Amino acid sequence: MESKGPSTATQQQSDAAAVATKPSLRKPVFVKVESLKPGTNGHTLVVKVVRSNTVVNKKPRSQNFRGPLDQNSKIAECLVGDETGVILFTARNDQVDLMKPGNTVILRNAKIDMFKGSMRLAVDKWGRIEVTQPEAFEVKEDNNLSLVEYELVDVVEES
After folding, report:
1. Cα(87)–Cα(121) distance, integer angstroms
2. Is the CB of residue 119 less than 8 Å from the CB of residue 110?
3. Which helix (DSSP H) or strand (DSSP E) does residue 55 occupy?
4. 76, 93 contact by CB (below 8 A)
5. Class of residue 127 by CB neighbours under 10 A (exposed 0-12, middle 13-18, buried 19+)
6. pLDDT surpassing 90 at residue 26
7. Sorting pLDDT into bands at 50, 70 and 90, what band is 71?
8. Nearest CA to 80 among 111, 48, 110, 54?
């Protein structure tokens, strides 16, 4: 029984050392709109909302609806951008209220969805939208990445 005493103390010391050397969170890498590519995710951007257009605003269809029964289902297409270009952002439910024209927002863990062959930016439940202080940049509206149409091509390797 005496041998367990020192090993328990050693165990506690190593646990304390493990807590002290816990890896810190990595710094976010902010990207520009022009660097977004189809099928990518995990983007952090600072963008301005140029305009917002509500597409869907309706009540849930049935009692089996996943989520609060009173909550309307809202979807808005927002044109967002920075000094390098613009892209359409799909805002859902509570996100719609944050995406007001003129707001500067930080999109964390954003992903690129493909819709009818064009890119759309979206933030799902794993991401975050934060309204921040207005930035000094001018939005470059003539470089709209959502107007570029992509086509899925199968590549066949010959042996």
Report:
1. 7
2. no
3. strand 41-58
4. no
5. middle
6. no
7. low
8. 48
**DSSP labels for 93-151?**
THHHHH--TT-EEEEEEEEEEEETTEEEEE--TT-EEEEEPPPSPPP-TT-BGGGS---
Q: Is the pLDDT of residue 2 over 60?
A: no
Residues 6+ apart with CB under 8 A from 28: 44, 108
Indicate the helix (H) or strand (E) that contains 57.
strand 41-58
Local structure of residue 152 (DSSP, 8 states):
-
Q: Which residues lie closer than 8 Å to 148 by C-beta, 6 or more apart?
A: 118, 119
Residue the block writes with tokens 């493909």: 114
Question: Higher confidence at residue 144 or residue 24?
Answer: 144
Tokens of 99: 């995406």
pLDDT(1) > 90: no
Give the mean pLDDT of 2-28: 60
Alpha-carbon distances of 144 from 38, 83, 117, rounded to whole Å? 14, 12, 14
